[in-house]
């Protein structure tokens, strides 16, 4: 592994950007537009505040805020980067023991919380490992025994921090990305200062390689799409961009293509997507925009695209795409989305009918479904274009290997099912304070078809190759339902259900059954106006008309789907809902 130059380490991200674009917008939300110079000053103050509070090198701090405190969130995170302190986020939806587990698992020394969250923290304060709880809000909302963020920031200057230890090094932990805990307790993925840069380079290369292949294949048919015009106007092919990134990030090249672009990120700052995608687009020299509504508001998103001239947008699968499409259909052709170059999906692939609908309204954009995880950023990409066939397969990355392996660690043949594993040149492959789960996910091993031992990330995603060698994602390993000896992939059934005109969302799971081992059960959320008009039997018949009988739900439960900010459904909660509803029927 080659060394990563200091200017591309996270500890230097903001300082290097300020040198080049001090007046450029770093983040924007509501009526606030924060320049890089202001963000740098606030980050310096946060660094100096942490030092004054007695923080030490590689200590952990945890932050939990909504979007309306994005400046404070990033001041703390970037301030921590500058002095080699390790930030993490706390999901503001957690309560009680969930909070205690994550805060203590991270060995947090300081917890920063928005004032709204004080009632959650007060009853459990004595159970937390932290020395200080710091409230981001008005002084009168800061209880006795807690500290106030703004009061502390008044006591320090905005000079570059000078900690009494050496600057951050490549192997230092930069931050912890906590998983959403949909299959168990949340896990903190360790990223070093250099790991994040390498992951971003791989991510950019994978995305731009796919764009280059499309440009080569379709030529004049796609040249007018915004993403390709951006490159061609500079006389640069996306593959040249890939080549230039082989050794390091080239900020001047990136700025010449993307400088001034605007990225809209509606995934909360207490999720891996919210944090990682912000950092990724900062390196791509974008300004990052956030909505301020406490819940996802499609009208707010659409209006931001139109009035701010958003070029790139992240959505968390159907959970965000469906309400946007429904809103646009209701509004007709009132909104101008022509500024969009790319719509990204992470967490889950968009349904084909939603991709088609989005591209009808944003017909100068491309959609990039990104196969990614907290443990390994971008692994594969699916690109959809307006007016072209919508595919549901991913192209493997070109720099590091993405493979589908069977239980014998052999690459599966087309049509066979296996687990998706990703080769990564990470210096640290582990969850923080969780050696047992680390050993299952991060494995250093030599596969028979490779010359050396490498670190592989076992993603838990299940897939197969099609006849072209592309990856078809089947779901998560825990989403395989074994019913009567037959395997059912729950997402396939859910995908069929959401194509029914009355269904807004669906989640399919297996529940214990004496005869079949597991019974296929669907949780179904109906669209407004359909409650009481669609029956369980009607939806089961619909499924049987469109897929094999054994895959179809034996029972359907009408309920609200409990998705988290990443669009995922906690499986324990889904099982609880299913069991309670089935018992009452």
Structure described in brief:
The chain is α/β, with parallel strands linked by helices. Strands 2-1-11-10-12-13-14-15-16 form a 9-stranded mixed beta sheet, sandwiched between helices. Strands 4-3-5-6-7 form a 5-stranded parallel beta sheet, with helices on both faces. Strands 17, 18, 19, 20 and 21 form a 5-stranded antiparallel beta sheet that branches.
Overview of this protein structure:
The chain is α/β, with parallel strands linked by helices and 585 residues long. It folds into 4 domains: 6-178, Rossmann fold; 195-392, Rossmann fold, CATH 3.40.50; 402-473, Luciferase, domain 3 (Roll), CATH 2.30.38.10; 484-584, ANL, C-terminal domain (GMP Synthetase, Chain A, domain 3), CATH 3.30.300.30. It is 34% helix and 24% strand. It contains 18 helices and 26 strands. Strands 2-1-11-10-12-13-14-15-16 form a 9-stranded mixed beta sheet, with helices on both faces. A 5-stranded parallel beta sheet has the order 4-3-5-6-7, sandwiched between helices. Strand 20 and strand 21 (471-476) form a beta hairpin. Helix 2 crosses helix 3. The protein is globular, with a radius of gyration of 24 Å. The mean pLDDT is 90.
